[in-house]
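Narrative of activities, Objective 1.

The group set out to show that a structural description can be obtained from nothing but a protein's sequence at a throughput compatible with the screening campaign. Below is one input-output pair from the validation batch, recorded exactly as produced.
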Amino acid sequence: MQEFLSPRDLAAAIGVSESSLKRWVDGGLLEASRTVGGHRRIALTEAVRFIRKNGTPVLRPELLGLAGLQLERRGDRGTDPAEALHEALVADDRILARSLILSAFFAGEPLAALCDGPIRAALNRIGELWQHDEAGIMVEHRAVDIIVQTLNMVRGLLAPVPVAAPAAVGGTPSGDPYLLPSLMVAAVLADAGYRDVNLGPDVPARTLRAAVVRYQPRIVWLAVSTPIAAETLRRECATVADSLGAAGAALIVGGRGVDAAALAQLPRVHVLESMAEMGAFARGLRAA
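Output recorded for this entry:
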């Protein structure tokens, strides 16, 4: 993907005249920098922000560095988004699956809503295939890889987080091998304005404590997908929470493997049920 766009390329990408686009720049609606020769240049992330905010259709995604994708307006396909994504993933149609997710993203759908909605629904269905199809595990692994690649692409389209922004660190607890849930958390927190440090799957409590010391985060997360004994999860969360005093951070825990009752009354520990709830919590913490 290109890092900067000329007014001509961006205008062609969204189907407006170059003169109109330059007026938007000069009017402060679209931020641009100037080359040594005085030519306007628009950061790709700024172009994406403008497109999402205004609901502007993308007619030529290749000019944004998204060659091969077909970006549609919300509702153009007329199919339930989760069903359409499920069919694309089962068929191993990487381009269609990526186009569906990016279409919704460019249409202004919050990243948290995409994770909670069509992505989660499609993968939950695929995760049940192994029960009646011997190829189910293969399909699931392939689907997860497509989603991981696509989320990393979306991450590259988000506005860069300032160096002075608060940090957030996390991963999955010991014995939890799942990569995708922690990646989703990291992406949603980046969208909320945090410098995310994703430690990935199977992170021992002592490693998370070391990350707290190093990064002094405002948020620490644990994405729990594998069922863990209630006492073990409570012990790990308590170990991490004990290290948060100096940093003044909060530990957020979520996922299908969480026993909320086991974490009740633990100081600084917040059990959240969705990516949207987590994003709202993170934004509220920043505002406070």
